[in-house]
Amino acid sequence: MDRERRSWLMDMDGVIVREDHLVPGADRLVARLAEMNHPFLILTNNSIYTPRDLAARLGRLGLAVTPNAIWTSALATAKFLDDQRPGGTAFVIGEAGLTTALYEVGYTLSETDPDYVVLGETRTYSFERISRGIQLISRGARFIATNPDPTGPSPTGPLPATGSVAALISAATGVQPYYIGKPNPLMIRSALRQIGAHSESTVMIGDRMDTDIVAGIEAGLETILVLTGITETEDQAHRFSYLPSRIVASVADLIDEVESLT
């Protein structure tokens, strides 16, 4: 029996945008979902930027969305910490996307005996702040990381990202972080709560089997893999021990389906 499709979660990089260009059809898909009042969120594991920053970036590329349509690993991390220890303190290695999200849930940033050391993405990792984080974790601070991605893209090639720096800190402290972003299904469930959606009637669209698709599967969603990002062929997908519900070439192939929804 076909599942009802009421709500949509979609990864950003590789699904909606690729190399600072909109994926053809992404604007039509998002516009149609908005017109039909189908709840949707654009997800990203990147914690550098605030939703306002990302909405502005997408707007420059030709996709008009509000900041409320974007869910980041920074927002999911802040929500998790607020649920776990409301009004807590954190030492942050990261940028505005993460610090702003923590401020907005009432967290205080502290370099002295914080409840948590929170590691996120940044363009320039500071050896001084990494060292301070190691010291605080060694003294008992809990270790949280926004996402496990080991590298991030740049015009000159891969750059170390949250997962790589987390491995360095773990090697120095013997403490493993709790990762919030994909593939942790917690990221998906927090997004569902944000838009009041249910897993039984929500679709997850992603370009990565090891983050987007596995997180969607573990959260109980229908999953659709697109071949416009990290995964470029169906053969790559079939190497995994799990499969998405469907594979399509791009989000453009979903426009007719969305337009047929009631």
What does this entry look like structurally?
The structure is a single chain. With 262 residues, this protein is an alpha/beta fold. The protein folds into two domains: 7-45 and 182-259, HAD superfamily/HAD-like (Rossmann fold), CATH 3.40.50.1000; 74-179, 3-Layer(aba) Sandwich (Rossmann fold). The protein is built from ten helices and 15 strands. It has helices at residues 26-35, 51-61, 73-84, 96-104, 127-138, 162-173, 185-195, 209-218, 234-237, 255-259, and strands at residues 7-11, 17-18, 21-22, 40-44, 70-72, 89-93, 108-109, 116-119, 142-145, 151-152, 159-160, 178-179, 202-206, 222-226, 246-248. The strands form four sheets. A six-stranded parallel β-sheet has the order 5-4-1-13-14-15, sandwiched between helices. A five-stranded parallel β-sheet has the order 7-6-8-9-12, sandwiched between helices. A hairpin with a 2-residue loop joins β2 and β3. α3 (73-84) packs parallel to α4, α5 (127-138) packs across α6 and α7 (185-195) packs across α8. It is globular and about 55 Å long. The mean pLDDT is 95.
Offer a concise description of the structure.
It is built from ten helices and 15 strands. It has 262 residues and is of the alpha/beta class.
The CATH architecture of the largest domain can be named as 3-Layer(aba) Sandwich
Side by side, the strands of the main sheet go: 5-4-1-13-14-15
CATH topology of the largest domain: Rossmann fold
> What's the average pLDDT?
95
Which class do the helix and strand fractions yield?
A: alpha/beta
Shape: globular
Number of domains: 2
